[in-house]
Structure formats: C-alpha cells, structure tokens
C-alpha cells in the first residue's frame, strides 16, 4: 500500500522538530535492514535523511564524497 503524500509530509515535519522521533526513525530503519526488511528500512532511512539534511544538502554532500576527487 502506497503512503499518501500528506502522511509523508507529516512524518517529515515531525522529524524536523522532534530529535527523539528522528533517533527512533533512524533506529527503526537500521533494525529493518538488519532483519531483512530492505524496502521498509530504505524508506525509513530516506525519510530520516530528507528530514535531517534535505534534498539540496544531500546533493551537496554527496558531491564531496566522490572517491575520484
């Protein structure tokens, strides 16, 4: 079942203002990956990254992680 944009926005907004929620989101994402639930884990980690770094900052940071530079 696909999540609605409204739900995803609610998660992002909560994560932006609630540090404890961010840590739980990150922890749950890692636990899902460890237990083999890769799609759920990736989705949770994506929500965490979008809420903490934002898409522009992520793009900027990934450019500095280029192994060829």
How is this structure best described in words?
The protein has 69 residues and is an all-alpha fold. The chain has one domain. 80% of the residues lie in helices and 0% in strands. It has helices at residues 5-17, 19-34, 38-52, 54-64. Helix 2 runs antiparallel to helix 3. The longest helix is centred in the middle third of the chain and has 16 residues, at 19-34. The radius of gyration is 13 Å and the shape is globular.
Rounded to the nearest angstrom, the distance between the terminal CA atoms is 41 Å
Taking all residues together, what is the mean pLDDT? 80
N-to-C SSE series? HHHH
Shape: globular
DSSP strand content: under 5%
> Largest sheet, described in full?
none
Would you identify the regions where 5 or more consecutive residues have pLDDT less than 50? Answer: none
Strand segment count: 0
Radius of gyration: 13 Å
Residues in helix, %:
over 70%
Total of DSSP H or I helical runs spanning 4+ residues? 4
Q: Give the helix/strand class.
A: mainly alpha
Task: Label this structure with key terms.
69 residues, mainly alpha, 0% strand
Concise account of the structure shown:
The chain is built from four helices and no strands. α1 packs across α2.
Please render the helix and strand layout as text.
Elements: H1 5-17, H2 19-34, H3 38-52, H4 54-64
Helix pairs in contact: 1-2, 1-3, 2-3
